[in-house]
């Protein structure tokens, strides 16, 4: 006698979530590999909001808040998407250097 196997909704969701996670992981790896390739077109590397936040070791919500207040790094909009040029992230971080809680470091000229 043949018995049909119908996985429970819980099992199906587990398999689906595992598949999604592995697909996202694969996409992340592919994107990182593509980003590590040297570009010779003269354009700076553009990072997404999530990547920029990770690069600056901030939470995405903090970076979003800074952008909304005008205190964050320079960004570019391509349609509705926001990108941060990597050199601008570095410059913004260097501008926020302090010697003590009351003394901002002066940039050498």
Automatic annotation (TrEMBL):
What domain of life is recorded for the organism?
Answer: Bacteria
Domain Helix-turn-helix: from-to ranges: 46-96
- What is a single Pfam family found in this protein's UniProt entry? HTH_17
- From the Swiss-Prot or TrEMBL record, give the protein name: Helix-turn-helix domain-containing protein
Q: Which organism is it from?
A: Hyphomonas pacifica
């Amino acid at each position: 006698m043949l018995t049909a196997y119908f996985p429970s909704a819980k099992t199906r969701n587990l398999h689906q979530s595992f598949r999604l996670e592995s697909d996202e992981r694969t996409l992340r790896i592919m994107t990182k590999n593509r980003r590590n390739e040297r570009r010779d077109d003269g354009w700076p590397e553009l990072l997404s909001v999530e990547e920029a936040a990770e690069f600056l070791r901030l939470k995405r919500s903090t970076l979003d808040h800074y952008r909304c207040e005008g205190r964050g790094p320079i960004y570019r909009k391509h349609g509705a998407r926001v990108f941060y040029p990597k050199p601008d992230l570095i410059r913004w971080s260097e501008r926020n250097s302090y010697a003590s809680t009351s003394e901002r470091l002066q940039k050498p000229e």
